[in-house]
Amino acid sequence: MQSNLLSILIWLPILAGILILCTGGDERAPVARKLALGFSIAVFILSLPLWAGFDNSSALMQFQEHGTWIETFNVHYALGIDGISMPLILLTTALTVIVIIAGWEVIQERVAQYMAAFMIMEGIMIGVFAALDAVLFYVFWEAMLIPMFLIIGIWGGPNRIYATIKFFLYTLLGSLLMLVSFLYLYNQSGGSFSILDYHALPLGMTAQVLIFLAFFAAFAVKVPMFPVHTWLPDAHVEAPTGGSVILAAIMLKMGGYGFLRFNMPITPDASHELAWLMITLSLIAVVYIALVALVQGDMKKLIAYSSISHMGFVTLGMFVFNSQGVEGAMMQMISHGFISGALFLCVGVLYDRLHSREIATYGGVATPMPIFAAFAVLFAMANSGLPGTSGFVGEFLVIMGAFKANAWFAIIAALTLIFGAAYSLWMVKRVIYGAVTSDAVAALKDVNCREILILALLAAMVLWVGVWPNPILDVMHATIDNLLLHVSVSKLP
Amino acid sequence: MNAVTLKAALATPEIIVAFMACLVLVAPLYMKKDTGIRLAYSLAVATLVFTAAYIAMNVSEGASAALNNMYIADPMADLLKIAICLVSAGVFIYSRRYNQDRDLDQPEYYVLGLFGVAGMMVMSSANHLLTLYLGLELMSLSLYAMIAFYRDDQLAVESAMKYFVLGALASSILLYGMSLLYGLTGSLELATIRGALTADEGNVAVALAVVFIVVALAFKLGAVPFHMWVPDVYQGAPTSTTAFVGAAPKIAAFAMTMRLLAGGLEDLHTMWQQMLIIIALLSIIAGNVIAIAQSNLKRMLAYSTISHMGFFLCGILAGTDEGYGAALFYVIVYAVMSLGAFGIILFLASRDNESDRLDDLKGLSKRSPWIAFLLLILMFSMAGVPPTAGFFAKFSVIEALVKADLVWVAVVAVLFAVVGAYYYLRIIKLAYFDPPETDLPVAPAAGMSTVLTINVLMIVLILPWIGSLLSLCAEVIRQFAV
Predict the structure, then answer these.
(1) Does position B199 have pLDDT exceeding 70, yes or no?
(2) How many domains does chain B divide into?
(3) Residue B436 preceded by cis peptide, ω within 30
(4) Is A183's Cβ below 8 Å from some Cβ in B?
(5) Which of A223, A215, A316 is nearest to A275 (CA)?
(6) From A157, which residue of chain B is nearest by alpha-carbon distance?
């Protein structure tokens, strides 16, 4: 099937971003906002046919596009999606709409640039998920750093410059090693940059291990896995709310996506060989980082650490190599996209009012802001994996998968249900409940219509995925079964 | 060799430029000062654009020698000359206002520039050591004078002196290497040298000749450890001249490197490869690390140039057609980026502010969002971050290295590219994240900003067609190698 829907989804937001940039200064901010909203909704609607037209029974790449880009290096403009990338693309288009609405009133400075940065980033992120050519993938992957660098650096908090440069250099270093392994694979495969060719390419064990580690450097930084997670709390704390949402909800998923698209299929033997490492690091993230989250006094930092802990679940699920584990990892990625996004938006709501992210500033918020409190409690519950919310589905599947591999993995991983509940609910208790601690808190205004709208949309998603995850799981089955089959066959020559 | 083949028509581009340089020297003498300067400026720019167009319309089919085999016209030379002419025309356009503000806008500036361009074109087409040397000296002497042009400025005069002394030293080293080659082969013609040298490996005299030539090339390129003059010249020279020195002469230096190493000394590849690995890696490392400590923008760009020259040498040292093609692509992209970067400094400079301190860039995005945006693109491109041409330049060089089994060189180069990214990011940080030091708006200059915009946006907008540009470079090199 030849269609250029993917190209439209990539380039429309980028062109829209450029158009928005052209609206110029802040005196025309309303135009910029409306344009951004209009285009982001349009892109979201345009992305729905990806799901409607998706053949659930096929593990092949769908909606493929193909064109020659750089003849000298045999680089192609090749796009396509399967059951792994399609849900992530929809997640991207949906969350971009929410982020645009979230920044509606909050961002008053350089509005056009802010909106344009998010629109351009949306296009680039879709490109990352859709690219089937290693160089094209790499271009999108790195290009994504530029708008994020600016978003954190311009609209971020007081320590934003340190955070954004750390973020950029950390990710750049990881990516460049990935680039070198792409070039190695290019020469090994006799001059192809096609990711699907790499999947079929036989490789010796040493080469596999080295390539695995190089990819690991790129993706582990992005996920982020312990011990290369230290950029995330800094970046999250300093980023503006919209930046945090995109960072947590989508950019982290690119690391997980990378493991599924590159590490596992390209280096299956090394993946099995090094699974112990991945599982150990994941379990450390799940348990240790959850404990770190427990002691944070800054709400954004707490959620950032909670993200790292939850992403530990994702990598754990992948490297137990069974369908529950991998599907659980995917579900966890999607659900974490909604929940962490929602939690960052909740912190944003409070921050906009009192300009503090410290838990200690608040207390008894439920009294002046009852509607907000209801949402915040729901998302905190979801974050701790309450059945009926999306958080439960992923964690449950991963624990089930881990149990199949080794009961101890499951037992350790299940600890997070306790720790997760502990840090989420303890934060809720201190911020939302209790006596009203200060006059400032007492004077808080409850959420307005705009904020209710975005929180309600996210709440609906969280509950929908929690109660009826099948539509999403159905999309992934065929692809993930095929992936696991592929990984179980040795590629040693 | 025996038949006297003149075929001077092949050298028409050089002849046009040299003739126009003489005309620009003489004509303004018969006019009022202002008219004369305006005429000199328009004639210079028009000449360069016309010459570029002329070459583009008369591209050589394969290589053909002329002027008793001293001169060669091949597609590589054509491509390089087009780049040299266009880039230099850009420098003239950017320099105008800066020079006017400092009373440097004299017809002689353009005369020297045109002679410099003629020298670079001769270098591109050299088929003979003597031609190469003549071209090099024509270029260098013009540059010395252009740097000293700002004679009221002590720094400029000092750096001209420094450049002159070191440049003369490098030239003499080059001559010594050439004379050894002549002694060994009995010829100054590159093709003959190439044929005669094949069997002589292991000979001390050959090794000495190669060392002298590589050292001289490193001097001219400004590669570590022969880079000392670069920061001083970049900082000391008036920015308009720095822009000139930073762009087109790099392309000419590429031509010289190709003609000497890949042409005349190709069979001694293993000898010069080892030297170039050391020189290239030292340049990448030292350039990127020292650049971090700079507070002067021009000086920082000088160290950045050093690291870029290291990267470009990485392409050459691979010693394969892919490597040469990558280096060619790299040097052209670099010249365009360097032109843009100095264009921005020239744009920001006002009558009483050189605008060459890093702090002058603070809050640029508030003072002039568009220029800040162009600067952003340039810096990401120089750092080699996609989606910019700078990324593909680095990419093709690294690809050539990996293919030539020099993976470790590639890894070192890549790691220090990350170090380099830091100081480019700092520029963006200053321009975008810091509050401005002054509220003065940037003086607009309509014509100049259009050219600047085209210049910089090209780095990004070329991407869909970057494949054809890379193929062009590969094809040109394939014809060179034949």
Answers:
(1) no
(2) 1
(3) no
(4) yes
(5) A316
(6) B433
Number of Cα atoms under 13 Å in the Cβ half of residue B383:
30
B386 contacts in chain A (CB < 8 Å): 138-140, 142-143
Taking contacts as CB-CB distances below 8 angstroms, the residues of chain B near A165 are 422, 425-426, 429
* Length, in residues, of chain B: 482
Q: Which residues of chain A have pLDDT under 70?
A: 1-2
pLDDT tens-place string over residues A165-218: 888 888 888 888 888 888 888 988 888 888 888 888 888 888 889 899 999 988
A161 vs B392, B411, B433: nearest CB:
B433
Query: Model confidence over B410-421: pLDDT tens digits?
Result: 889 988 888 888
**Taking CB atoms and an 8 Å limit, are B418 and A176 in contact across chains?**
yes
Please tell me which residue of chain B has the smallest CA distance to A70.
Answer: B467
Distance of CA A286 to the CA centre of its chain: 17
Tokens found for residue A170: 């950390």
> What are the pLDDT digits (tens) for A260-299?
899 888 888 888 888 899 899 999 988 899 889 888 888 8
- Which residue range forms the structural domain that includes residue B228? 3-478
- Go through B418-441 and write b for each residue having 16 or more CB atoms within 10 A of its CB, e for each that does not: bbbbbbbbbbbbbbbbbebeeeee
Distance from the Cα of B122 to chain A's closest Cα (Å) equals 30
- Rounded CA gap, A435 and A450, in Å? 28
Long-range pairs of B105-108 with CB within 8 A, sequence gap ≥ 24: B105/B37, B105/B41, B106/B37, B106/B149, B107/B24, B107/B25, B107/B28, B107/B36, B107/B37, B107/B39, B107/B40, B108/B25, B108/B149
> What tokens does B190 get?
């590159």
> Which ipTM value was assigned to this complex?
0.87
- Closest-CA distance of chain A to residue B471, Å: 6
In terms of average pLDDT, the best of A469-478, B196-205, B321-330 is B321-330
Nearest to B402 among A140, A143, A184 (CB): A184
Q: Which two tokens stand for residue A66?
A: 């193909």
Q: How far apart are CA A159 and CA A161, in angstroms?
A: 6
Which candidate, A293, A460, A466, A454, places its Cα nearest to that of A372?
A: A454
Which residue from A335, A333, A304 is spatially nearest to A458, judged by alpha carbons?
A: A335
How close, in Å, is residue A84 to chain B by CA atoms?
25
Cα–Cα distance measured from residue B277 to residue B284, given in angstroms and rounded to the nearest whole number? 11
Burial of A480 (0-12, 13-18, 19+ CB in 10 A): buried
Amino acid of residue B362: K
B1: pLDDT strictly greater than 60? no
Write out the two tokens for A390.
Answer: 């999306």
Residue B152: predicted pLDDT: 82
